[in-house]
Amino acid sequence: MLPRILVIAVLSAAMAAAQHGGGGGLPTGAAATDGGGWGSAHADRLSPRDQFAAKLKLDKDQRVSVEAILNTAQEAMGPAQQKLVEARRDMVLAMLDPKSGPEDVTKLTQAYDALSVQAKALEATAFGKICALLKPNQQSKAVPNFGFMAQLVEQGSMGAASGGGQSGHWGGDHGGQK
Fold first, then answer.
1. How many structural domains comprise the chain?
2. What is the dihedral of CA 38, 39, 41, 45, to 10 degrees?
3. Does residue 121 belong to any structural domain of this protein?
4. How does pLDDT run across 117-130, given as a tens digit for each residue?
5. How far apart are CA 153 and CA 78, in angstroms?
6. Could you tell me the residue range of the domain that residue 124 belongs to?
7. How far apart are CA 75 and CA 158, in angstroms?
8. pLDDT tier at 75, thresholds 50, 70, 90
């Protein structure tokens, strides 16, 4: 009975590994589309900004402009995200405080909602500016990548607030000496 269980476990593990693309098969992602074949750069090896530029097929001039837009949005997002963190903390503390009533929590929730709208407006403004730079054949790629751009803005602002994050250049920090 034990040998049967072991054989089933090994076969299950092998099938699971095969489903996750354990290294065999044809190139996918950037390797399949960049014309570089087997030895080309994979999307997971590109910085997030480079991935975004590749998804939109930005030229050099567009990259410079988009980088400036993202940097400005990240700078504005830093304080907005800090306010969101504080508002979230205040909501949780009010919910846990037996002295707080439902109207206190409602007031804090409304304040949090307003801050969240402001943060999303920063993302939408940056996205609108980026879309204005795109050529007609690039614009169809913009909408599916809004969420990715929003992550760049949000994560970049949190990294900057904590002293880490992107270096501010296409390609970011690849672990070299500082």
1. 1
2. 100
3. yes
4. 999 999 999 999 99
5. 9
6. 48-161
7. 10
8. very high
Question: Is residue 63 in a domain?
Answer: yes
Distance, CA of 27 to CA of 37 (rounded, Å): 7
Report the candidate in 145, 140, 152 with the shortest Cα–Cα distance to residue 70.
Answer: 152
CA 2 to each of CA 6, 48, 151: distance values in angstroms, whole numbers, following the listed order: 6, 47, 48
166 with 159: CB under 8 angstroms? Answer: yes
pLDDT surpassing 60 at residue 42: no
In a domain, 68, yes or no: yes
Q: Is residue 78 part of a domain?
A: yes
Arithmetic mean of pLDDT, 1-17? 56
Tell me the C-alpha distance between 106 and 80, whole Å.
Answer: 20
CB hemisphere CA count around 147 (13 angstroms) = 1
Please determine, for residue 63, whether its predicted confidence score (pLDDT) is greater than 90. Answer: yes
- Whole-angstrom distance, CA of residue 133 vs CA of residue 128: 9
Reading the block at residue 19, the tokens are 């489903």
CATH of the domain at 87: 1.20.120
